[in-house]
Design brief:
Helices cover 45% and strands 17% of the residues. The chain is an alpha+beta fold and 385 residues long. It folds into two domains: 3-175, no CATH class; 182-382, Aminoglycoside 3'-phosphotransferase, Chain: A, domain 2. Bound molecules: adenosine-5'-diphosphate and magnesium ion. Adenosine-5'-diphosphate binds next to loops.
Length: 385
């Protein structure tokens, strides 16, 4: 998530100051002052709005490593070069792209440490220790955090980063070298890592598979959607409540018309290429397990293989009559047309739930716009589903 989007969404500077103070209190047992006005004995930090980091000047060497890994833009050569140039320039001169000065008691931030605000958390990258501390943003609920922690404690696969240390609102892990898959420019490596990811989630699925009867499973989803929609209309004032209910109801009818056993498994929940990492040795890691949980075996594969998180993803998925790429975790590799209709309806309900939960885990009325954007897209696509 870009810092410019956070500035629009949330009271970013207050959240940053409160979270940094809380971090030093919880993790380092130090009471520190972090403010935007110069005080005696404080060290100046630069909040770089363009690339979204907080660092001292001169910038620590770790910042350049991180930025060069993050700004490895796929697609066009020009964007790639512009990304690299911006990363290089701003990690050398953080004042370029400066948003604000901040002041922290001198000597508090590690020599090779910088701060990187994320969607729901703030990360402290320490390139001397090669570890990163992740703490929930002040004012944000801990449901997703607790879920991630529980998953990572229970499922110790070699594609899940081990936790080095943790508290109630923070954890520590190693810094990965390499790139998020979304930033891997070598096409062969990209495809290899997609395949590896499928194998990883296939392993997790095989170890946790359980069957449920389709109408019971779908009814569970519908009940949850109904509850969350009510909350979303009340708390977030979303505009697409009625349409969402109608889409979920139509999906339910489709599922009822063709009863079948539904294979479910523990999965990631948000398996997009930004949550997969390819390290320098070419090894694939899956991270950001906030939304891990039990869903149908098709959900993660569909999100990954049809890029459901992107604007065009659902359109591609729906237009495919035999979406063979979603069977990687399914013990049954061939499905009839009727079954495919049920599968698509189930994935739709699971995806509605994903977006509803995602929005409801943000404070205040934030996230309603993103939800309505999703629901509107789906509504246009599904009018005659
Ligand atoms: N262990 C790590 N090493 C290096 N970078 C990381 C690590 N964990 C997360 N990141 C970076 O931080 C970003 C956000 O982390 P993530 O857990 O996906 O949170 P969010 O919920 O904000 O997406 C990632 O996209 C990645 O760029
Ligand atoms: Mg992520």
């Amino acid at each position: 998530m870009r810092l410019s989007d956070m500035l629009l969404r949330e009271d970013f500077y207050k959240i940053l100051a409160d979270t940094v103070t809380e971090y030093f209190h919880l993790v380092h047992n130090r009471e520190v002052a972090f403010s935007y006005k110069k005080t005696d004995g404080s060290e100046k930090l630069i909040v770089n709005g363009m690339l979204g980091f907080i660092s001292r000047f001169p910038a620590p060497s770790g910042l350049r490593k991180f930025m060069l890994a993050e700004f490895n833009v796929r697609g066009s050569k020009l964007k790639f070069l512009v990304g690299k140039a911006a990363a290089l320039i701003m990690s050398t001169f953080p004042q370029v792209g400066k948003q604000q000065n901040a002041y922290l008691v001198g000597g508090t931030l590690g020599k090779n440490t910088f701060i990187s605000p994320q969607n729901r958390s703030i990360r402290f990258f320490d390139y001397d220790a090669m570890t990163v501390d992740c703490i929930i943003k002040s004012g944000f609920t801990s449901k997703y955090f607790v879920n991630q922690l529980a998953f990572r404690k229970q499922y110790r696969y070699d594609f899940v980063l081990p936790l080095l240390e943790h508290g109630d609102r923070w954890f520590r892990e190693i810094i990965l070298t390499g790139h998020p898959l979304a930033r891997v420019t070598n096409e062969t490596q990209y495809q290899k890592s997609m395949q590896e990811t499928i194998i990883c989630i296939g392993q997790l699925a095989a170890d946790t598979i359980a069957y449920e009867e389709s109408s019971g499973y779908a009814q569970g989803l519908l009940t949850r959607i109904t509850e969350l929609l009510e909350e979303a209309e009340h708390r977030k004032h979303i505009a697409y409540g009625k349409q969402t209910m109608q889409m979920a109801q139509t999906a339910m009818d489709r599922i009822k018309s063709h009863p079948m056993p539904i294979p479910t498994c523990i999965g990631h929940g948000d398996l997009q290429s930004g949550n997969i990492w390819v390290d320098e040795a070419g090894k694939t890691w899956i991270y950001d397990w906030e939304t891990a949980g039990r869903r149908s075996v098709w959900y993660d594969s569909a999100v990954l293989m049809y890029s459901l998180r992107r604007a065009y993803g659902w359109q591609d998925f729906l237009s495919e009559e035999l979406p063979k790429d979603i069977y990687s975790c399914d013990p049954q590799k061939v499905r009839t047309q009727d079954e495919i209709t049920v599968i698509k309806a189930i994935i739709l309900m699971e995806d509605i739930l994903f977006y509803l939960e995602d929005m409801l885990e943000l404070p205040q009325n934030w996230g309603a716009q993103i939800y309505d954007g999703f629901a509107n897209r789906m509504w246009q696509l599904l009018k005659d589903f």
